[in-house]
Amino acid sequence: MSCTDPLLLTETEEVRKRFSQMIDETLKAIFDSYSDNSAFSGIDPYELREKITSLGFLPEEGKGFEAVLEQTKKEILPHMLRTWSTKYMPHLHSPVLTETICSELIISCFNDSLDSWDQGPAATEMEESMVHGLLGLFGFDPEKGDGCFTSGGSQSNISAIIAARDWYCTQKFNWDVKLNGLPPEYNKLRVYTSEISHFSMDKASHILGMGYNAVRKIPVDSTCRIDLAAFERMLEEDVAAGLYPYCAVATFGSTDFGSIDDAAGMRKLCDRYGMHLHADAAYGSGLIMSQKYKGRIGAISMCDSITVDFHKMFLMPISCSAILVKDKELLKCFELHADYLNREEDEEDGYINLVGKSMQTTRRFDALKVFMAFQTRGASGYSEIIDKSVGNAAYMFEKISHNPAFIAPVEPKLSSVVFALDASDEVNKKVRRQLLSEGTVIGQTVKDGRVMLKFTLLNPNLEPAQIDEIIDRIETLGKQLS
Ligand SMILES: *Cc1c(COP(=O)(O)O)cnc(C)c1O
Q: Which of 52, 152, 257, 278 could covalently link to 160 via disulfide, CB atoms 3.0 to 4.6 Å apart?
């Protein structure tokens, strides 16, 4: 039988009824796919691969929605990760606020695109309005600054590095990178960031033709923040060696430890050497919403650009991120006019075409999620969400640091806790694997050459009693697996 499902959402009553039914059935399939609070079915990768590949690729005849939903429900949904579970805490990978799931439905139904005004009128105006608000929230002048939503922190970071490089080459060498490509001095350009910063900086440097070696890794102190004296020494030595420091990146919330670099101290050095200062706040940007902890975000407004991820602490569906710049000229590095898309004459008449600020062309209306979540929760609701996760990390650290079975090297400033059983690396690894098979998912990393376990506590439903339970379980497993 060939498929009779409606092709598109139209205005007819028949299609509306059928589509509502499809949505109801989808929700039911989702709800039926889990019955307890575990985060994962525990299936092993070989078995899952077998299951998934046996589903096939492209049948000759369509099976229709019901049959496919049934198959999806049976073979796929049970082995998806349940991010809303309080037993899921390995990565900066968040559960999502219910209203933002509704935003996703709206985004997909209309499928507006943010390249040109005529592909997303409300989307374009809403993104501009949200960017305006965000600039103010992070202490930039909304009239002077600018910003753009991106696919994630990695893309926000590379956007900032491109802007910084182009700006620097204009200032320093009177060289237009957009027109001429990299300047002759390209292999002497250097960007500075901490040794524990996110790897997207290395990737960006490679993609931009300057390579990993152009990323200078500054040592961190015992609290995992950039050692400013070391940074100053590196700058002196590098300049003496004929290199060109063009950018520094302060991490606001390192991926493992949640540590926050001293941006005010870095600002002084960047000013001395004529460098751009970027804030990678992919993780820590959520702190700005907390009445209690917002002070920890420190001098973020002293930076020239900021990466904000909404799909981490802000609890929004992937993907949702933004790059904000203090001076709107910086984003001009992405401006380019095409006769078929963003004619200059339209822009003069008020039809803004956001493609001119973005690395992407076709782009999702992710700003709707920020709008709906901010309006739904308000400043006070968001503050409670962030306070809960930062508070949980403090609670967990307190517990662990008073238990001789564990070592916990760094006090958390955000919502992640890195620690280890005071046992061999092998035991720590085995404990994590065992927990995974029980449906509890925690992270693993390395600190000072030692395997560490990691909790990223983004879930506002997690209660201290559940934290006690998991600590006990790890301690027990540690003894059993030693
Ligand atoms: C997560 C993260 C990134 C990368 O962001 P994506 O959204 O995963 O691309 C960059 N920097 C830091 C500090 C992060 O925590």
A: 278
